Amino acid sequence: MNNPPWPKGKKLVHLDLKGAPPRVGYLHKLIELFSQLGADGLLVEYEDMFPYEGELQLLQSKQHPAYSREEVLSMQEFAKSKGLEVIPLVQTFGHMEFVLKHGPLSSLRETAPCIGTLNPHREEGLQLLMEMLKQVVELHPGVKTLHIGADEVYLLGEGEESKLWLSTPERTVEQLFLSHVTKVAGAVKAAWPNISIIMWDDMLRGMCPDTLKASGLVGLVQPMLWDYTPNLDVDKTVSLLEKYCSAGLCDVWAASSFKGSTCVHTCVPNTQRHLDNNERWLQVAASVSAAVHLQGIALTGWQRYDHLSVLCELMHVALPSLAACLQTLILGQFSAEAQRNVTERLGIPSVEVEDIGRTSADDSLFPGRRLAELTVELNALLNSEDIRFFDNNMYVRGWFSPYHRQRKMVTSLISRQIHSQASTYLGPMQEKVEALKEEMVRLYPDSTAEEWIEEHVSPVMAPLQRITEDFTSCLNETQP
């Protein structure tokens, strides 16, 4: 379908830094590319990579050093020089795992088992949030817009203080949510009157217009409606935006996805899935009434689903998807022109990263191309059924089972064939893993390479390695 281009408003690229934060040099290359691809802003979710100070220093990552104050400032200056506005995102209700996981702050959880949701009743909780926001705002001189998160506030109302609050007749969990967000947004406005405030919309979706009108949020916040599905329901989404507007929340944002929304452990994005999602958002933008003021769209690129989940697709392997999605928004469809713009700009034959192939070209057009190639190649090996289910094939189960190996009851001829096949698979995999690690530590912290390999590679390689080790052990025992 041929849609109008994305209407006037920002096109933000989401930088999710809670997983695989790019090294500063690579971050600058990415920012330059984002600008060249047509983005005009960054939505930066620092989490534990922000250089919090004082009592908040414990929030900094222990896996790898947080960015320094100088690095945060230089990133903003570089982005500004490329025409990109920087919008920081600080979670203030749900998804506060990086804060509430720490022992000294655990008493501020809504419920002890749910480390992501803040107790909305404690004054010290609001003080904590305002100190976090103060440090972030002060390190973003001239910041115009702030995103306060507030999505997926799990188990709200389940804490003892919330149950007591809800025991008063006619009080609801919706009101509990709204009272906290209004309090936070009001405090932000009081401290920084000229800053616009964005929040995620999902906790508002089930609320009626009268509840939203009475909440105090009107004039305080701009909801950002997120939907990352390729089959986004256009009519339902338009109705939701119109509902927000009827409640007085007419300044709204959209959020699509270019990676990180397929499956929690996906390694390589499917560009077509994300193109479909962004094309649906174009249909939404073309269908809303003139009363709905779309401020822009954020193309989200999650590195993790949350602070404690595994790494999903990393930035380097998703650049073709991002480029294709941005061109689709700019031109109104993924046309031949859009495809040509992407392939020429990145120096690739196709927008699907699986098809980029091996090349001797440098990464001046496509920062991280070599790592993307290795990621695709290794991912294909790891997902090969012959390798992933090797210890379940007929010969291993029939003649080299754990029972056989434990008792050294193996058939030499067949076990040698099994060992030979396992070694044939292991060799190329180990070579690619070493090459990938060498390349990955150039762009990301060492800990990112270690985590990626341990999560995505080790579970597949371990059974093969055990078979080769057990073969050697059995061979030594059975030889005369």
From TrEMBL:
Q: What is this protein called?
A: beta-N-acetylhexosaminidase
Superkingdom classification of source: Eukaryota
Q: Which GO terms describe its biological process?
A: carbohydrate metabolic process
Q: Which reaction does it catalyse?
A: Hydrolysis of terminal non-reducing N-acetyl-D-hexosamine residues in N-acetyl-beta-D-hexosaminides
Family recorded in the similarity comment: Belongs to the glycosyl hydrolase 20 family.
> Which Pfam families does the UniProt entry name for this protein?
Glyco_hydro_20
Keyword annotations: Hydrolase
- According to its UniProt record, this protein's enzyme class is hydrolase
Against InterPro entries, the record matches this protein to: GH, Glyco_hydro_20_cat, HEXDC-like
Q: Which residues form the Glycoside hydrolase family 20 catalytic domain?
A: 62-207
> What species is given as this protein's source?
Eleginops maclovinus (Patagonian blennie)
Annotated GO molecular function terms are: beta-N-acetylhexosaminidase activity
Entry EC no(s): 3.2.1.52
